[in-house]
Amino acid sequence: MEMENKTNNAAPTKENAKGLTLSPADAEEYYAYKKQKKIAEIMSALARSEGVIGAREDAQRVTERALRIHQAAVRVTPIGFLQAREFLSRGKIKVDCLIGGNGETFPKVKAYESRLARKFGAEELTVAVTPSWLDICRYGDIKRELKMIKHAAKKTCIKVWVDKRYPYTTLARMARICGELGIQYISVPYFVGCEKLRFDLFGGCQLEIVGVDTLADFKKMTGAGVGRIVTSRGFEIYSEWIKETEAIKYVPQPTVEKKEPEKQPEKQEKKENAVEKKEETAPKKNPETDYRCRLEGTELKFL
Asked: What Cα–Cα distance (Å) separates residue 278 from each residue in 24, 209, 271?
């Protein structure tokens, strides 16, 4: 352990400070790893999403696309569930059945629809809260209604749907009620700042956002930690998002051969130039006139 701590706390050397140079094979392997990591991130985000089977959409086509991008479930109305029941039962994907229409239904009717949808094979139930009760803040009646539906649904996953037309305080109050009753999800339509509702959740209750139709909003909700994202454009978002992985690839840089400049004999040229300058500046000797002599005693000696 002491040796490991010493190696971890060791100061970086000059080689580490400059960085490492990878070979082309290692660089290609590294970029392939980054690409697979990005694909895994995309598929993990889509695994927390949910498709929508609308009235005018082909249930088989929507289900096949949801299975291809590994979505968690598909949302469908009770009538649509009955029409596509045989096909949906063969697929390995959860069915999220809408209960209660727009919410203005008797609690007993909602409870009966919950039992019937569970009997047909629905694994998730999205229950609309009675809007008129929310308008006048009859939270006690809403709690009793949700308890009745939860008893009828038994162990089936329950989601409580609330419209976004209510103020944020009302939505936060409903989020706390869902946490108190042990509801798995509170479902609200997308609006700016909707991800803040997750701070009012507790008791295992998660936030579900409905109507996310752009990649930017999808990334935003995923990064905010939203438990479930419901979108009718799941495959289009996947197709747009997966294009980002195409840019993650290794592009080898062309090697340019550097030509070394020819070494010129500068010193030799300097010496030759210096000798030439000396020869030019030095006066030429004339043996008849240019001589030296000295007097030694009475004799004149020539040098």
From this structure: 60, 95, 11
CA 76, 79, 81, 83 dihedral sign is: negative
> Which residues, 6+ apart, have CB-to-CB distance to 14 below 8 Å?
none
**What's the token pair of residue 273?**
């130039």
DSSP state of 287: T
How far apart are the C-alpha atoms of 237 and 231, rounded to whole Å? 9
Closest CA to 206 of 193, 219, 197: 197
Measure the CA–CA gap between 16 and 136, rounded to whole angstroms.
67
Provide the CB-side half-sphere exposure for 214 (13 A, CA): 5
Tokens of 154: 């038994």
Angstrom CA distances, 12 to 2, 6, 16, 18, stand at: 18, 12, 6, 10
Buried b / exposed e across 30-42, counting CB within 10 Å, b at 16+?
A: eeeeebeebeeeb
User: Which among 94, 38, 40, 97 is positioned nearest to 71, based on CA atoms?
Assistant: 94
3-state secondary structure of 79: helix
Residue pLDDT tens, the chain, 303 long: 444 444 444 444 444 445 567 787 888 888 889 999 999 999 999 999 999 998 888 888 999 999 999 999 999 999 999 888 878 877 678 999 999 999 999 999 999 999 999 999 999 999 999 999 999 999 999 999 999 999 999 989 999 999 999 999 999 999 999 999 999 999 999 999 999 999 999 989 999 999 999 999 999 999 999 999 999 999 999 999 999 998 888 777 776 665 666 655 555 556 666 655 555 555 556 555 655 666 666 666 666
Decide the pairing of beta strands 206-210 and 124-128.
unpaired
